[in-house]
Amino acid sequence: MATPYKPKNILITGAAGFIASHVTIRMIKNYPDYKIVVLDKLDYCSNLKNLLPVCLSPNFKFVKGDIASPDLVNFLLLTENIDTIMHFAAQTHVDNSFGNSFEFTMNNVYGTHVLLEACKVTGQTRRFIHVSTDEVYGETDADAVVGNHEAAQLLPTNPYSATKAGAEMLVMAYGRSYGLPVITTRGNNVYGPNQFPEKLIPKLILLAMRGKPLPIYGDGSNVRSFLYCDDVAEAFEVILHQGEVGHVYNIGTKRERTVLDVAKDVCKYFNLESEKAIQFVVDRPFNDKRYFLDDAKLKSLGWVEPTPWQEGLRKTIEWYVANPDFWGDVSGALVPHPRTSMVPNYGGSDEIKEILSKFTIYNQANAVVAQTSEDASQMQGFKFPKVKSEFCYVE
């Protein structure tokens, strides 16, 4: 077995989002000798409160900014001496991609391209872990007994998965053309505490808590595989240290269930009659029937999936019951077919600063730093695209 990889300074993009926040917390707590710098523009489905458990950690630094800003990304790689990138930042909700697909191209494709180009220019990256999705494989046959292997053809069926596949092609190209040490992951659905309620499980939970109908697309026969967030965070920990450069790893489970079965399980917890509580609604323009992954490659590195479905669902429901207002007004996300325009952006500047006041060494004087492209582009003789950015920098 190859010597485990040991990073020093990690940049985690999208770290105030759902999956990345769980990974960030795990890495900060388990590896106090790693410096963790997180970059997030705080889009509608991100929340600084996700990072409060580690906000006082000495090895943690938060930067509010956009991966689509080349000057900011290059500035961070150089000033923080970043040797490892874990790239989670993306637009991920399929429904939104049918309504505003250009935003997905900008975030998922262009944003990834900015990061890759910065790695090429600075020449100091030892690992670039690109987080993709099982949806790039497209729909799995209903009768398939073997899941999609990492070498399977990519056949995305919606704008979201198409942009993730496009980003993967850039990652692969930079690995081959410039020798960047890239690793790609493709994961099944993830659920657990802190997830924004546009996604199936938190949406059903919050609607059940409010006594509202639980909307199910089509007839609910679509099959999905769900992984608990802590198990996925552990998978990324394993891939970071044990993953082989140039390889793709599926993060999957063979424990499948239909969307209708998920809704029925939520009903059972709240003692609801599923026949009355569940409401079948118009399906999305195209809804893949099944995603099924071959997870043998990751398991060969020592990863296991310890959390049973019923336990993970119970923990998730208990968290939402205890934190019903965590996301504020999410009524626009709880409709059957939400769009980004229906969901208010998370927090204003005052709310963000109030939460940041809990982060270490934060005060009004150093809260917002205007970093112009002219300043960043002159660093060490590097020439970066001149894109003005303003970001919040906390250490």
From TrEMBL:
Keyword field: Lyase, NAD
Protein name per Swiss-Prot or TrEMBL: NAD(P)-binding domain-containing protein
Organism, as annotated: Urochloa decumbens
Cited InterPro entries: dTDP_Gluc_deHydtase, NAD(P)-bd_dom, NAD(P)-bd_dom_sf
One protein family per Pfam: GDP_Man_Dehyd
Gene Ontology molecular-function annotations: lyase activity
Cofactor(s) needed by this chain: NAD(+)
GO biological process, one term: nucleotide-sugar metabolic process
Matching CDD domains: dTDP_GD_SDR_e
The NAD(P)-binding domain, residue ranges: 11-316
PANTHER family linked to this entry: DTDP-D-GLUCOSE 4,6-DEHYDRATASE-RELATED
